[in-house]
Every structure is written in structure tokens, then in C-alpha cells.
Design brief:
CATH topology: Rossmann fold
Structural class: alpha/beta
Strand content: 5-15%
Strand order of the largest sheet: 3-2-1-4-7-8
Low-confidence stretches: 1-6, 8-34
CATH architecture: 3-Layer(aba) Sandwich
Distance between the termini: 16 Å
CATH class: Alpha Beta
Radius of gyration: 18 Å
Shape: globular
Mean pLDDT: 79
Number of strands: 8
Number of helices: 8
Order of helices and strands: HEHEEHHHEEEHEHEH
Length: 265
């Protein structure tokens, strides 16, 4: 594991612990959560965090309070690393125009403490309610998502925004159901590895080398989809991520994601 990811795991644990306590004392969802900023010097490694939320279904896959907590934690990490945070709603009828809204954190200060304080001030100026509103505006009716195109757009975003050799963490909150390009996960499909090989032959598997890819909510479909299909969906995305060169991590909830990012067992 790289030194940057070890930093990410250690510092997120501290940030999230404070956020969870602060959330209990903060009323409503309009305000910013109460949270600490890491006290250690910034790694200054340009960590790029990309957050994709599947809003194609009428019901969002995670509650607004969870979105708020997760967004604030991810923004804090990106700021501390002097990196970038980008978010995009995954939409069923406008996927080719997937729009990442990005915030970059850059300090011109000299001393480690001055840099840390400057990055903290930049984090504090980020409007979390505005980021949440941007995601909610992407909502588009029925659950029919072109996730294959979404990850292609993610590839283009990472290659076109100067990420370069910086570490990358991607958080995808989605049920994982693909209904596009002649593929419907609601219908019978071959084994996950077979389908991934077929898609790769059609250039429908993105290239995401070195990316640590977190999936939240796979198989969580309104009305249910069945345990066997849910497990098939999980296996498909594990094979897909590895074929893309990424390191996949499956999580069940936002709390689970935050725990894993924090390095807890």
C-alpha cells in the first residue's frame, strides 16, 4: 500500500470520529457538519477524490444526512492532501454529459503549519449544501443507468484534469444495475467474468490503473432484486474493476465506507 493511502486511512479515521460526534450536535441538513481538520502536516500529494452518486432512481441510494457526512469527510481529505474533490450525479438520460463539479486545493504558503492552516481555511469555504444540491439536480426518473458510460466519463475526467501520478480514490454510490447498450442486468446474463471479457472486447471497460474504487450499495434495488442476482452484481463489478486496473472495495453503507477509509478492522 502506498504511503499516500496509509495517510488517507489514518487521517480519515480521526476526521470521521469528530464528524460523527459533531453531527449529533448539529440540527438540520442545511448547515455544515462540525468537524476537525487533521493536525499533522499535509502530505501535499495531490490526492484526487471522485464521488459519483447514482441518482437515476426515484429514491436516492443513501439518505441526505449520509450524503452530507460523506461529502464533508471526502472534501476534508482532499483539502488536507492539497488535492482535488470532484462529484457527479450518474443520470440515466444524460450520461454522456456526466458533469463533474470540482474543487481544487492549492497552497502557496511555505511552512508545513502555514500550508495546513491555509488548506483548512480553503476547506471551510467550501459550501457543502451547494455540493449536495448539485447532486440532487441530476435526478432522472426510472432506474435505468448507463454505468458503463459513466466509468468511461470518469476515465476521461481523470486523464483530462491533470491528475497524473497523484493517488486516486473513487467512491461510487450505486445499485450497480446496468440497463444500456444492449445489456440489462434485469435479464439473464453469463458469468460475471465472461460478460466483463465481452465488454472489454467491445472497449466498454474503462482504464482506471491504480485507482482505489469503493462501491456502496450494490444490489440495493427498490422492491428488491433477489439474493442471487445481488451477488452476481457484486461479482460483476469486482471483475470489472480489476479488468480496468483498479482495486475494488465493496461496502454495504456509508458508515461502512467511512470505517474502511479510516483503516478500522
Amino acid at each position: 500500500m502506498t504511503r499516500a493511502l496509509l495517510h488517507l486511512r489514518h487521517r480519515t479515521a480521526l476526521v470521521v470520529a469528530t464528524l460523527l460526534l459533531g453531527a449529533l450536535s448539529t440540527s438540520g441538513c442545511a448547515g455544515k457538519p462540525v468537524g476537525a481538520f487533521p493536525s499533522a502536516p499535509s502530505p501535499e500529494d495531490g490526492l484526487a477524490i471522485r464521488y459519483m452518486l447514482d441518482v437515476s432512481c426515484d429514491a436516492l441510494p443513501v439518505a441526505q444526512a449520509e450524503q452530507r457526512l460523506l461529502t464533508y469527510a471526502l472534501v476534508t481529505e482532499a483539502a488536507w492532501h492539497e488535492g482535488s474533490f470532484g462529484e457527479a450525479p450518474i443520470r440515466n438520460d444524460a450520461i454522456e454529459n456526466l458533469n463533474f463539479r470540482e474543487v481544487r486545493f492549492v497552497s502557496q504558503k511555505q511552512s508545513p503549519e502555514a500550508i495546513r492552516r491555509d488548506l483548512q481555511a480553503q476547506r471551510n469555504r467550501v459550501s457543502i449544501p451547494s455540493l449536495l444540491t448539485h447532486m440532487q439536480r441530476g435526478r432522472r426518473g426510472a432506474c435505468r443507468t448507463d454505468l458503463l458510460a459513466a466509468f468511461g466519463e470518469l476515465q476521461r475526467n481523470l486523464s483530462g484534469t491533470g491528475v497524473g501520478g497523484s493517488p486516486v480514490v473513487v467512491v461510487a454510490v450505486t445499485n450497480g444495475v446496468v440497463v444500456a447498450r444492449g445489456v440489462s442486468f434485469y435479464k439473464p446474463q453469463p458469468a460475471p467474468q465472461v460478460l466483463v471479457a465481452q465488454l472489454k472486447a467491445q472497449s466498454l471497460v474503462a482504464s482506471l490503473p491504480g485507482v482505489r474504487l469503493f462501491f456502496v450499495g450494490l444490489g440495493r434495488v427498490p422492491g428488491g432484486i433477489g439474493l442471487q442476482k445481488a451477488r452476481w452484481i457484486e461479482q460483476f463489478w469486482l471483475h470489472y474493476a480489476r479488468a480496468a486496473g483498479a482495486t475494488p472495495v465493496l461496502v454495504r453503507s456509508v458508515d461502512d465506507l467511512i470505517t474502511r477509509l479510516g483503516g478500522a478492522a
